[in-house]
Design brief:
The strands form three sheets. Strands 3, 4, 7, 10 and 11 form a five-stranded mixed sheet that branches. Helix 1 runs antiparallel to helix 2. The chain is of the alpha+beta class.
Length: about 300
Amino acid sequence: MTDHHSSHAHSLADDLQRIDTLMARRRALKWCAGAGTVAFLAGCGGSDAESADTTTTATPTPTVTATATPAPSPTSTATTATCIADPQETGGPYPADGTNTASGSTSNVLTTAGIVRSDMRASFLTTTTVAIGVAVTFTITVVNVNATCAPLAGYAVYLWHCDRNGTYSLYGSGAGESYLRGVQVTDTNGQATFTTIFPGCYDGRWPHMHFEVFSTLSNALGGRYAILTSQFALPAGVCSTVYADTTTYPSSRTTFARVALSSDNVFGDNSTAQLAQMTPTFTGDPSTGYTATAVIGVAR
């Protein structure tokens, strides 16, 4: 008779224990397959005892978040990308900056109290007369042509021009007035703003404004320390529009018809690029007033 109870035979208790072990192993393998990560599979790849008895803690997979590259912050600038040095021009016969005389004495309004002002329409010495004319708010930006047109802060600009009749204060028939002259200091953007009027046109000259630039306010108030003396040429189209009002500007329309930019004794020999920079940009109209802007380039 064959003995079924050899050394390889098992009792019912042995078989039940073996079935329990196999079932535990299958449950573990099924759990590993459902997890689907490398970390879990590594934990499930050991011996039967490790599969049944070892608990593997999964390492969380880091979440990759797409980060947008921030857009460059806009750079605030008061100047254009290109600029040139303004040419030196004459201060003319009526600068009142200490370089000439008026009524037999040296005329230097820069050393008088009150010259530092934004609104230059009123006289401030012996009278308070306000110059009549079309209002102009004029912002000038001073830049360094040797430093990629960087704004020059803390510079002083002296601006002056004739009145609606072509007369300059402190000289001749305008000797009793001190209007249409003022000094302003440039801010961090290199800008200085004046409130004035549109000047008239007189014989022999294209309509214009005079200016001087000083490296400091103290130099300006001392007089005769300008690093640049030059002029602005007023745009032809605006001149024609303003001078059409012959009540406010009684002689300018006729006089303007007799002058030409090309033959002007100051602007006539300037290059196209120089004239473009020396001509302010105007927006507005005679009834509401104009806003003007211009760049002054100096080499520092």
